[in-house]
What does this fold into?
Amino acid sequence: MTFYRYGDNYHCGLGEIEGLTKELIKKLCEKQSIAVIDNLINFNYRLLSEKISTKAIHNHKLNQVDGISRNRAAYEGCIKPRNILEHLMTENPYQNRDYYAVDLKARLKTHFRRKAGSGASNNE
It folds into this structure.
């Protein structure tokens, strides 16, 4: 088993990945003077999460199918901080129509649930 250092911890449980990743995104945004808003952090987390999953599957294939050692596959297939930063600088969620549609739908659902839960009897 391999342990990696994340902050003061030498492990990373699956339940901790989202928080650690979002904190990294937030720090990178602050360092680059990018406005830190929850929607931007969530959008970039989803994109980065997809990238991480794709890399993990690829690295697993390198090891299991192609016979490359696990350490070599992980080393050569890592996502470098520079790539994360470039991604943050080039992706704008509100220029991405698909993301904006999903985000808008989620916000509308939340709005209507709150309205329904407030017991409003008038037709607004």
Q: What stands out?
A: The radius of gyration is 19 Å. Residues 17 and 49 are 9 Å apart (CA to CA).
